[in-house]
């Protein structure tokens, strides 16, 4: 390997490392006011399903709780992953400032998303959870918040969090 290529690889690695550190620090900052420990109560009727009781759902298996918005650019990449996972895992989603129930249902249909959606029209759920950034993903097990992720994440990252909390 030439010195030039070796230098390029070292610089690229260092840049990626710094970028990862900055993003991690930023995500920790975004999550500072979000709840930890026992999850706030979440019992609601989704736009497209039966009543959800987060605590009951999380008694036997972890639940992926996903806060998203139709206008969120990053959610356009994360939502299809969450939809795919909803076939095999317990998923509950909360739509923030995305319109009335009819508009949210139409959005889901157009995008081909298949997950239960609680429409947070008044913002009361996001306020109770101190969610101010989308997307935000919580892993809940036995009513307790086990993991929080904000911003973009991969399917492998979400699966790892679910697996760790089986």
UniProtKB/TrEMBL annotation:
Signal peptide range: none
Domain Thioredoxin: residue ranges: 33-166
GO molecular function: antioxidant activity; oxidoreductase activity
Keyword Phosphoprotein attached: no
UniProt-listed CDD domains: TlpA_like_ScsD_MtbDsbE
SUPFAM superfamilies: Thioredoxin-like
Keywords noted in UniProt: Membrane, Transmembrane, Transmembrane helix
Entry keyword Membrane: yes
Spans traversing the lipid bilayer: 12-30
Protein name: Thioredoxin domain-containing protein
